[in-house]
Specification:
Blueprint (H helix, E strand, L loop, with lengths): L2 H12 L1 H13 L7 H17 L3 E5 L6 E6 L8 E6 L15 E3 L2 E3 L3 H20 L7 E6 L11 H9 L4 E4 L8 E3 L4 E10 L3 E2 L10 H13 L9 E9 L5 E2 L2 E10 L4 H14 L7 E10 L6 H16 L6 E3 L7 H5 L5 E2 L6 E2 L7 E3 H18 L2
Helix pairs in contact: 1-4, 1-10, 2-4, 4-10, 8-10
Length: about 375
């Protein structure tokens, strides 16, 4: 093992208690994505903490919770290394009792413990570990947003991520690590849409024939929409939420569904929109009308040879530490790496603490991976910039 790796390992091992303490503070500060004031308070607190370390920080307005951008070594001449994460969780404050962070049998528990406050701790201590070995070749940009779990609805955070990652040498998104020890070299894109059917209300017993049942019309459309799925080609179209009707003796004049589409290639998007629109244009129940709104869309994080090469290089570092090499994954779930990838820079995701149960009250993280992966990714940055 090279000298810088030994020193990075010693630094992380010497700061285990500090890392756990920061992890505890972040998890115990409960803040859901839509609690903008609480997220901003957390962001301001972390900004002050980083500034005390001598790291240049600024808050970037988004229209919702601000983005925290921290840069270590702004004066360095090399291309920046980009580290990305988020501070929000799916759990609003009060979802857990006060001070919920606990460790039992090598697992840490609490809201956001793996998705993704463990990864946030890793990024901060990766910078500190690299400082400890005199790393001075490339700026390290750390970006933390506060509304990732709501897909940046109503904010400009996605545009900020794309802008700030442009021109970087490579990127690590420290999102929760997978239990199969795979890193994500790509992710599916997603498209949300809302479909609304209007019909005509009438009394079921007295005026059945004058009614135009919006739910009946939507039922036909749901089947047609589900039929657009081509799973073997990486395309999924799923109707997931439905609303309609008032009482059991009245023909409903309104029905609305929310549809989630997933796709593997950027070229799939327009084809999916066209197919969904065609389904909506077809009428089964005369007298009903249908509208479709295309809402949030997350671009594909394309699997590229550059991403695979970066994965192989990080895996070599892991093996030098005596850890198993990472596998590769292409999950259906989206992340902010999609916005980084629009800049065509090498990127990998799922680099954070390994764990499971994200978005559930059983969320948990494997504590030892907090330290193992902080060592690996710190050393990878050092090695890949020599």
């Amino acid at each position: 093992m090279e000298d810088y790796m030994v020193k990075i390992s010693q630094f992380i091992d010497g700061h285990r208690a500090e890392m756990i303490d920061l992890w505890r503070e972040l998890v115990n500060f409960q803040a859901g994505s839509r609690e903008v004031d609480r997220i901003e308070t957390l962001t301001q607190w972390l900004k002050k903490r980083l500034e005390q370390e001598g790291i240049a920080c600024r808050l970037i307005p988004t229209g919702k919770a601000p983005v925290l951008l921290a840069v270590d070594g702004e004066e360095r001449e090399g291309k920046p290394i980009f580290l990305c994460g988020h501070l929000d969780t799916v759990f609003p404050s009060g979802s857990y009792p006060e001070n919920p962070f606990t460790i039992r049998d090598g697992r840490a528990f609490g809201p956001g413990v793996v998705d993704m406050k463990g990864g946030d701790v890793m990024m901060i201590y990766m910078i500190k570990a690299l400082r400890s070995v005199g790393f001075d070749r490339n700026p390290i940009k750390l970006l933390l947003c506060g509304d990732e779990e709501t897909i940046h609805d109503g904010s400009t955070a996605a545009e900020i991520i794309q802008r700030e990652s442009a021109g970087c040498l490579f990127a690590f998104n420290m999102e929760m690590g997978r239990m199969d020890n795979c890193l994500s070299v790509g992710r599916k894109g997603s498209l949300d849409c809302r479909i609304t059917v209007h019909g005509k209300s009438s009394h079921v017993g007295n005026n059945f024939l004058t009614g135009r049942n919006a739910i009946e019309e939507m039922a036909h459309k749901v089947i047609d929409l589900q039929g657009l799925t081509r799973y073997e080609e990486g395309v999924i179209v799923s109707a997931d939420v439905i609303r309609g009707g008032t009482v059991s003796n009245t023909i409903p004049d309104f029905c609305q569904i929310e549809v989630d589409a997933r796709f593997t290639h950027a070229s799939d998007v327009e084809a999916i929109k066209k197919q969904i629109s065609e389904v909506c244009a077809k009428t089964y129940v005369d007298g009903t009308t249908t509208t479709v709104e295309f809402l949030n869309s997350i671009p594909v994080f394309e699997k590229t040879e550059d991403n695979l090469h970066l994965l192989r290089q990080v895996s070599q570092v892991a093996e030098e530490f005596g850890l198993p090499p990472f596998g590769e994954a292409f999950p259906g779930g989206s992340s902010d790496t999609s916005y980084i990838a629009l800049n065509a820079i090498p990127a990998i995701c799922s680099c954070g603490v390994m764990g499971e149960g994200a978005h559930t009250m059983e969320e948990q993280a494997v504590v030892e991976t907090l330290f193992e992966r902080a060592k690996v990714f710190s050393a990878a940055i050092y090695k890949l910039t020599r």
